[in-house]
Amino acid sequence: MSTRTPDYGQAPSYMGEIPRYVSYTSPVSIAGARDGISASSAARLPLNLLALIIDCLDDVGDLARVTRTSRLLYYLTLPVLYQRVSLHSYGDIRYVNGRPEGFGGGSPLMMALNGLVTKSHAALVKEFRIWGQWKEVGLEEFRMGRVPDNSMMLNILLRACVDKMSKLQSFTWALDTKPLKTLYQGLAARDTLASLTIRFSSSRVPRPSVLVPPMANLRALKIEEYDPLCYPDDLSLLILQSRKLEDLRLHFSPRMRREAEPSLSLGTFFGRCAKAGYRPKLKHFALQNFIGANLDGIEHSYHPDTCQSVTMFDTFGGAGNSTPSAATVFLDSMWNDMSHDMSPHFRCMRGNEVNEKFTEMLKTFSGLERLYL
User: Which of 149, 164, 220, 324 could covalently link to 195 via disulfide, CB atoms 3.0 to 4.6 Å apart?
Assistant: First the structure.
């Protein structure tokens, strides 16, 4: 008895079997040899070749136009069209030919989210990105201890989208507002998620800070514009319990180093790892714009036997360590006395700081293959 998994609309591979419902719409005759009918048009291409051509299309407009050409191309192209979804939110109303975008309906962002929630296309999405400006209404409610309705509804709507994205592998949040707990819970429940990028807000309006839950199969985590004065979320539990994490990149707000503000330490991110005696088995670790005292956390940021690549920009001394800033020199000098081994197993290093201490550290490396300065 056959146990072959049914096809539910995924893009057919040009190396695999063509789904039956696509074959019925193919311009290529499947009964020509049997019935004595010869192919009379050179435009009748095999489905495998069509799938290969569609796989080479990278422009969203081209994919959309091909989708509307015929029923066959609709079935072949639709999964590719929705494989990567990027939604841009605008803070102000934009006009096209004298009329606002979304005239007669909602904003393009809301209509796109509505389509993902109410139709079956969300099941085709593998990479999702939402970015731009979000117009928050009722900021005074944050100061009263309550989340404004429009911010809450945005997160609820995104949670509904994520719940339907059964193939989601990458999620990027780059709005100028923070994600809320309900969205994080939806991402944590998605066991296919392998990459997460969060860009935090630069607003200092009081808002909820969330303990981000662990994500079992997460392999890449990228944090941007982290500012301790802007109510960021707690990532320590996520780093501790996401045991498949291989790529961790922490980007801090340039304001911290510019204003010489040592308001956090690496223990904020790796404190739970230190208490549990665990070192993330990273392959790549990156820091940018970090400023803080050498108290704890650096020895628990990665496992020395697995980390192969490290990037340090404007960290432990700022850009151009040969001429340190007078405002940060006392904090930066604390990192010259790191007692633990920085791992001689690095294959690749990237940085913009060169000083005597750095060259002495390079002498201990045995497997370094690439150095970028």
Answer: 220
